[in-house]
Amino acid sequence: MDPDVLRVGNCSGFYGDRLAAMREMLEGGALDVLTGDYLAELTMLILGRDRMKDPATGYARTFLAQLDDCLALALDRGVRLVTNAGGVNPAGLVTAIGKVAARQGLTPRIALVRGDDLTAQARELGLGSPLGAHAYLGAFGIARALSGGADIVVTGRVTDASLTVGPAVAHFGWDHTDLDALAAATVAGHVIECGTQATGGNYAFFTEVADPLRPGFPIAEIARDGSSVITKHPGTGGAVTVGTVTAQLVYEVGDARYAGPDVTTRLDTVSLRQTGPDRVEITGVRGEAPPPDLKVCRTAIGGYRNELTVVLTGLDIEAKAELFRRQFTAACPREPAEVTWTLARLDTPDAATEQQSSALLTVVARDPDEATAGRAFTSTAVELALGSYPGFFATTVPGGAHPYGVYTAGFVPQSVAAHEVVLPDGTVEPIAAPPATRALEPLTGPLPHDPGPPGPTRRLPLGTLAGARSGDKGGDANVGLWVRDEAAYPWLAALITEDTVRELLPETARLPVRITRLPNLRAVNVVIEGLLGAGVAYQARFDPQAKGLGEWLRARHVDIPESLLEAS
């Protein structure tokens, strides 16, 4: 192992990612540490419900399947595994790993990081009575597990970047005062945490990626000062460019202060440079003391949800939709607490196929009572089938209601979580909270410079010049936009204002919008508060995780200076 460079790979960006990725990463080239990120807000709800049904579960079973295939390979190559696949039952995963190892005649040293689960004390902490309450722990428990000799480190809810920061802390001996190094490693961890999103997956300019079919998973080569190079194994698909790294950097962030339990990272200080094929260097990152509170993921069952979609074909679409809405509302046996209607005008005039001539009308019910939102609700449509608009049919048969989850963020003082590590020999050690903290203050970047008279312009999609990546943070949606040409940044920074966002995305008209400008990255980040209701499981909109929101924004037409088009 090189004392001055730590090679950290990633083999999972979510629960359900490519199953073969662990073997691909272990066989594809040199690594010191292999991480796997399996947790998201929705995943915590899924795993919490799993454990309610069977107390022995509650962890990411796909990790166990990967390990069953690759444990001997990892041990043979001396690659240490760090994962948050423990979910809501990390001790259960440790037990399960032990059984896999025993069956194979192996004896890996396994460490457990715990203390994130605050569910039992949620009420007394002012967090209500959720299904689950899990604090986002930091990297120092992982670091102690590795310095204590662990081959495998299992955690519950830690921050995604901590999976990378922890190994770096252990390797380089950093402490809580090494804020710039911690921040730089946090940036590296944030880039690789979502797997192939850093190597050409979900990339706005995907048509320019030479080999997009099966992107390789990313690697961060971390130096002693925390700076890093993002790369991938030779011969794997996808690409690592300043663009693909920028896309991941602006994914699911707020303003320029990226808060974590160990450090607050200044995203406005990040500098990127292409140093070779599939190699992007990250330098200049500055860090500040972390906030005094830990973020807590709170999940709960919000009630019951049901929906039905009917098809409207041909002429008079709006009138057909209005007739059905009125008939359905009048005939519904019980009025749910919340009913929403959505008309998707997918039809085109004089269409060559029936599908192209059709629109979709969807009705959604939510209610605390399962019967009110249940089959009786959707069966209302069947009773109208022969007495409603011409051409009536539905996309599915009526069904029962299903429970839906809600996510809310809570906060507790850093000292509340009993962060500790169980070392491979069974020794339990507490992990101290950071000695110094700093209250978060918004940092939205400099006001845009006047780009000057635009000259002649053309009305074109925003995505002609700008890339985008979007996603969810609880009930908020984030859209990061960037341009690749320095000359285009003043135009983008001036264009993206609250008013422009509301004009281009009409759904945001009545919602708070926050804009952050990141000149170093030639990027503008947009946070739309409340667009996703109570989080992804609430399914407040057609795209409940806002994954396609950025691509919709890129498709909206704006006035682009011809001078920028000529330079692109």
Helix fraction by DSSP (H/I, runs of at least 4) = 25-40%
Rounded mean pLDDT score? 95
Distance between termini? 43 Å
Which word captures the global form?
globular
Structural class assignment: alpha+beta
Q: Please give the number of β-strands.
A: 26
With strands numbered from the N-terminus, the spatial order across the biggest sheet is 11-12-8-7-1-2-3-6-4-19-20
Count of runs of 4 or more consecutive helical residues:
14
- Rg, please? 25 Å
pLDDT under 50 segments (min length 5)?
none
Major sheet: 11 strands, mixed
| Beta fraction | 25-35%
SSE blueprint and pairings:
Layout: E1 5-10, H1 21-28, E2 33-36, H2 41-53, H3 61-77, E3 80-83, H4 90-103, E4 110-114, E5 132-135, H5 140-147, E6 152-155, H6 162-172, H7 179-192, E7 218-223, E8 228-232, H8 242-249, E9 257-259, E10 264-266, E11 271-276, E12 279-283, E13 286-288, E14 293-313, H9 317-331, E15 338-344, E16 358-367, H10 375-383, E17 393-394, E18 402-413, E19 420-422, E20 428-430, E21 457-461, E22 466-473, E23 476-483, H11 489-495, H12 498-504, E24 513-518, E25 523-528, H13 549-555, E26 557-561, H14 562-567
Parallel strand pairs: 1-2, 2-3, 3-6, 4-6
Antiparallel strand pairs: 1-7, 4-19, 5-14, 7-8, 8-12, 9-10, 10-13, 11-12, 14-16, 14-17, 14-18, 15-16, 19-20, 21-26, 22-23, 23-25, 24-25
